[in-house]
Every structure is written in C-alpha cells, then in structure tokens.
Design brief:
The chain has 308 residues and is of the alpha+beta class. It folds into 3 domains: 84 residues, no CATH class; 81 residues, Beta Barrel (Thrombin, subunit H); 99 residues, no CATH class. It is built from 8 helices and 16 strands. Strand 3 and strand 4 form a beta hairpin. The longest helix is centred in the N-terminal third of the chain and has 17 residues.
C-alpha cells in the first residue's frame, strides 16, 4: 500500500470506531443494493475524516479528524487502504476487490439479534412463498432488498414478516416506499433472545407473608427464544410477572413449608439493565397478568438505555 504506516493506523482506528457504532453497515448496504466500494467509502465519510492535500486543504485545527492523504495518494490508493482495513476488521463484503453487488447471506436465526434494538428477519411473499432477508429497526421500520421492495410496493398485502418462531406479522406502508410494523411490540417480543434462570424461593413451615425466605435456589442460566420461554413458563405454571420476574403460585409442601417457583429474566438481546419494559412486552404477549404490587405498568421503549 502507498499509504504511510502512521496514517494507515489512524485511518484504520477511525474506521474501527465507526464499525463498532454501526456494525450492521454491510447488511444495510447490501439490502440497499450498494456495491462494496460504495459501502466502504460510506463508512469513511461517516468518520468525518477531512482529507487534505498539498494545495491548500489543511488541518482545520478544530478537532476534526485530518489526514493529508491527497498530498501523496489518489482515490485508488485510498481505496486500497480502505479494503485492507476492512479486511483486518472482519468486514469481508466491504473489503471485496470485485466491485459487484451481492445479496446478504441467508437468514441465520442465531444471528438475528443485532445492535441498537435491531433485528435480522425474514420477509415472506405469501403469494409466491419467496423469502428474503430484511432488517427491522428499533422503531419498527423494515429495510428490504431492492428487488423485494419493488414487489412490496406493488402489492403490500402479499407480504408479511416472519419471526424466529414462524409467526407472521402484517406490514404497512408509509408513503410509497417505506414499510413498517404497526404491531412492533409483538414482533419485538417474539424475535428477542432471553437469558433466564429458573429459581425457587423456599419458606419455612408456618411462615407469614412478611417473613424472610428460608432459601433461594437458582439453576443455571438458559438462553431461550420467546416460544421456548413460553413453553418453560407453561410447565412451571407461571401466571404473573413483575419487574424481571415471571412467577407461579406458591405451592405447599408435605412438611408444611412452601415454595414459589419463578423465572428471573437476566438479559434481553444481550442487554441486562433497564429491561423491565422488554420483559413486560414478552409477558403480556404470553398472556400473563401484572402483579401491581411489584411493578407499575410500563411501555416498551424504542430508545434509551435498553434499546440504545
């Protein structure tokens, strides 16, 4: 590469910072029909880097990232550096030398949870049975492939969104080109990944409601889909929820003691803090009632700490 080592390290760090902020940039670019060169240059532009030369474009001196690359390089040289950096960052689509658009990889349920409250999902054409990968943002907007988008615009009633459990969700159009999920909370609950722990609180014989428990038993963590969690809750007899807990009725034991089995949800989509609204959405979708004494009613957030 023609780029100087010090300049390359600065360029790579700027790109890496942006990739961490926007890890879905390749998927988004592929859905939008962008070729690899466009995708990597888009990331460069998002870094805010000002590229100088030896003919008057100088460092603004205001903290804006600056490199004098045009003083000894042209766009082809810069593109080579971008491809190399993208390869080192593991962004293989953006690193491709063949500047030809390629569709995203087929849907992978294990990779459906993305950053910032977003999901990878499947768009289903109910008329033809065709499925294609799409991206669902945290506000319910749906980004689809260009080819599928044209068909969706022409006949929106023929398309639904599939969640990981196989359930379908109706789409609506905003204007003539943008699709979104009117019932986003239901999709969010069913597409999410839950880290839970089965627990049981034991009370000594003769305990009163305000007495401290005798013991709390906790099993190992489990990573579950919505359907798996719903099945486990059904087996346990869960009926109510509050805070981060999905709990069943107290059970009396032969020795006069009592126990309260429950599931504690410790994370939703990799987030472990401020997740009560997300748990509320899942519990409501499962038909559980809220224990008013444990947690006030809350609405699922589409921004903020839990969803970015």
């Amino acid at each position: 590469m023609k780029i100087q080592s010090e300049h390359y390290q600065t360029l790579k760090q700027l790109l890496e910072n942006q990739v961490k902020r926007w890890p879905e940039f390749e998927l988004y670019g592929q859905l939008e029909g962008h070729r690899p060169e466009r995708v990597r240059w888009d990331v460069l532009h998002r870094t805010g880097l000002k590229i100088g030369d030896d003919a008057g474009v100088e460092d603004p001196g205001d903290g804006t990232p600056y490199l004098p690359l045009y003083a000894y390089m042209n766009d082809n040289h810069i593109d080579t550096a971008l491809r190399n950096a993208m390869h080192e960052l593991g962004c293989e689509y953006a690193a491709r030398s063949a500047n030809v658009h390629a569709k995203p990889a087929p849907f992978d349920a294990g990779k459906r949870v993305l950053s910032d409250g977003q999901f990878m999902a499947q768009l289903l054409n109910t008329g033809t049975g065709e499925e294609s990968v799409c991206l669902v943002t945290k506000n319910g907007s749906v980004v689809v492939e260009a080819e599928a988008r044209a068909k969706l615009v022409a006949n929106p009633d023929s398309f639904v969104l599939k969640d990981v459990g196989g359930g379908t969700h109706k789409l609506a159009m905003e204007g003539s080109v943008s699709a979104y999920l009117p019932a986003y909370e239901a999709f969010f609950a069913r597409q999410s990944e839950y880290v839970v722990r089965e627990c049981e609180v034991l009370y000594a014989p003769g305990s009163k409601p305000d007495d401290a428990p005798q013991a709390v038993i906790e099993d190992d963590k489990q990573v579950l889909t919505f359907d798996q969690l719903q099945g486990q809750c059904s087996k346990l007899g869960v009926k109510e929820f509050g805070g981060q807990v999905l709990f069943a009725d107290a059970k009396e034991r032969p020795d006069g003691s009592a126990s309260v089995p429950f599931y504690k949800v410790e994370a939703v989509n990799g987030v472990s803090e401020y997740i009560e609204p997300e748990i509320h959405a899942a519990a409501a979708a499962m038909g559980f009632k809220q224990a008013a004494e444990l947690q006030p009613d809350m609405k699922l957030k589409t921004s903020g700490p839990a969803l970015g």
